[in-house]
Amino acid sequence: MSSYTRRNFIKRTVVASGTLGFATSCRRLLVTDRNELSRGAIDRLRAKLKGRLILPTDPSYESARRVFYWNAGTERRPQVIVQCAAEKDALRAVEFARRHELEVAARAGGHSHLGWGCSNGLVIDLSGMKRVVIDPLRRTARAEGGVLSGEVARAAGRHGLAPVLGQCPGVGASGLLLGGGLGWLSGLQGASCDNLLSARMVASDGRVLTADSERHPDLFWALRGAGANFGVTTSFECRLHPIGAVTGGDIHYSVRDARLVLRFFRELMEEAPDGLQATLNLTPGDRGVFVSLCHAGSEHEAERTLKSLRAIAPPTKEFVKRQEFAELAERPAATNPANTPPPAFRGIQTVYRDRLSEDVIDIMVDRLGRASAEIIMGISHYLHGQVCRLAPSATAFPLRQAGGLNVRLAYTWNDPGTGQHLTQWADESLRLLRPSADEQIYANFQTYETRNGAAAVYAANFSRLAGIKHKYDPDNFFRRNSNIPQIGMQSWEAREPSTRAAKLAAHLLTNQISCRFHIAFNLRNEPKEGQFFRMIRVQF
Ligand SMILES: Cc1cc2nc3c(=O)[nH]c(=O)nc-3n(C[C@H](O)[C@H](O)[C@H](O)COP(=O)(O)OP(=O)(O)OC[C@H]3O[C@@H](n4cnc5c(N)ncnc54)[C@H](O)[C@@H]3O)c2cc1C
Predict the structure, then answer these.
(1) Fewer CB atoms inside 10 Å of the end CB: C or N, the chain?
(2) Is residue 106 lining ligand 1, measured as CB closer than 6 Å?
(3) Does domain 39-125 have CATH number 3.40.630.30?
């Protein structure tokens, strides 16, 4: 916890030692000003780097700190940006951030929905580390941490091979696969992380580790779905697949046919062969409602699918063709169309649902009717095929239930004044779409927190991950991500916090886990009933 965060934390809370039969102790939290950086310290860091160091006074600072989802909610002003040119730069940056207690953000493609690729402390920007080496015989790619998904696809495509990465070429390949990674080929070849063979990582204590099935296997398991939590992945190796030509592109319909298309989309995907993946987009504007698809089966099978899509309702436009997979993989995402200048601001909300139920369809049709032209809703990454054949515990990425999908609510704006009504539309849509129970979140699409914190993201894998986090990053140095808090640390705003505390205590005692028990009370406001505990933290 940096001194900055600690200071805020102390303002709001008082830490008291618990007495529930545990060895109690209370470590004093010190407020320091150690994160005020001296010129000398900055110069010494700069001298050690092969890449660039950027400060708030540099002319390139504004563009260097900018990430894809740029808006008031995601904006951060880093004190230092290290644009790495080599693994050693990442190592130096970690050491520096540690010494000066700076909040760290690692960044590859900068596409995190919550702007996690930026921080108020130090940014470790890997986007200059671009080497990709394809081994056509072993069918593997070795890529540095800053390589984008489209760049891996292009390099692999030259050898008739394809990686399993996402549907947007601008997303960082390492950022995507560390969070799981779902894409056009996931029905055939699993999640991106299922295709990871090894990763090199700079840990918070400055060690450089290689994780694979033999070296640090616990870390290797954790990197495949919760990877941003453990260190800076400077390079990785992944499997490639011989995917020949595919049938891909978009079929558009009138907005009036939205409900019909949504229902047909569900039927199509429930029966989909492994080689088919499709995304549904709904806009109130000229683009209307459109299905984007990739069919990696035979041309004959793909034609059958197209025929059924053309029969739902009269298509208004169609851009579908047989093409090399790499060509499709380099197409911009629907939320990020080519030929349009990038907007000044972007926002998004995403919600995971375990099926496309009638009530979800009703809400989507209703919200589309209330949407303005800047909005694009969608359904992405319908789960089926190979990705669902692995057990949720096979890797840290747990979302492997057939029929699961992500509903996305994306919007862009240029005039700062119009952001508010778009945000309100998205927040209200999200409120209606969130499931009332058993809420899950896909790490790569996380846009909000739930009461269950990281357990909503990692499900049954959470407690195993908490142990691995404790081993490799005990101080939670890497926390700009779908964060696994320090072991046992949980924020509860529960109605019966004392019951929860007692349950936790019973669990720890039953399992003979020796620990220190801290309870922090919320003193910021008059404690209301059910909001008394701010935090319960257990240290092992
Ligand atoms: C337009 C768009 C399309 C998308 N399409 C897909 C899709 O098809 N499939 C899918 O699964 N997801 C998709 N995503 C989500 C995307 O996978 C996640 O947002 C992912 O985390 C972005 O990675 P990044 O490197 O671009 O982002 P960043 O903002 O750079 O990083 C995202 C997170 O990963 C961490 N991180 C990044 N690189 C490293 C590293 N090398 N070492 C350690 N930590 C790192 C960052 O600290 C941060 O927490 C899409 C997002 C956008 C905006």
Answers:
(1) C
(2) yes
(3) no
Please report the atom of ligand 1 found closest to the CA of residue 444.
18
Cα(445) to ligand 1 centroid in Å equals: 9
Torsion (CA) 285, 287, 288, 291 in degrees, nearest 10? -150
User: Which CATH topology does 132-239 take?
Assistant: 3.30.465
Pairing outcome for strands 317-324 and 245-253: antiparallel
Domain(s) labelled CATH 3.30.465.10 in the chain stretch across: 132-239
pLDDT in tens, the chain (540 residues): 333 333 333 333 222 222 222 222 222 223 333 457 999 999 999 999 999 999 999 999 999 999 999 999 999 999 999 999 999 999 999 999 999 999 999 999 999 999 999 999 999 999 999 999 999 999 999 999 999 999 999 999 999 999 999 999 999 999 999 999 999 999 999 999 999 999 999 999 999 999 999 999 999 999 999 999 999 999 999 999 999 999 999 999 999 999 999 999 999 999 999 999 999 999 998 899 999 999 999 999 999 999 999 999 999 999 999 999 999 999 887 776 767 788 999 999 999 999 999 999 999 999 999 999 999 999 999 999 999 999 999 999 999 999 999 999 999 999 988 899 999 999 999 999 999 989 999 999 999 988 888 999 999 999 999 999 999 999 999 999 999 987 544 444 434 445 555 555 555 554 444 444 444 444 444 444 444 444 445 444
Amino acid at residue number 281:
N
**Residue 375: enclosing H or E segment and its boundaries?**
strand 375-380
Whether the CB of 146 sits within 6 Å of ligand 1: no
Ligand 1 atom nearest 192 alpha carbon:
11
Start and end residues for every CATH 3.30.43.10 domain found in the chain:
39-125
CATH architecture group of domain 245-445: 3-Layer(aba) Sandwich (3.40)
Residue ranges of the chain that CATH labels 3.40.462.20? 245-445
Q: Which residues does 274 contact at the CB level (< 8 Å), separation at least 6?
A: 187, 188, 384, 385, 386
Does the reported pTM lie above 0.90?
Answer: no
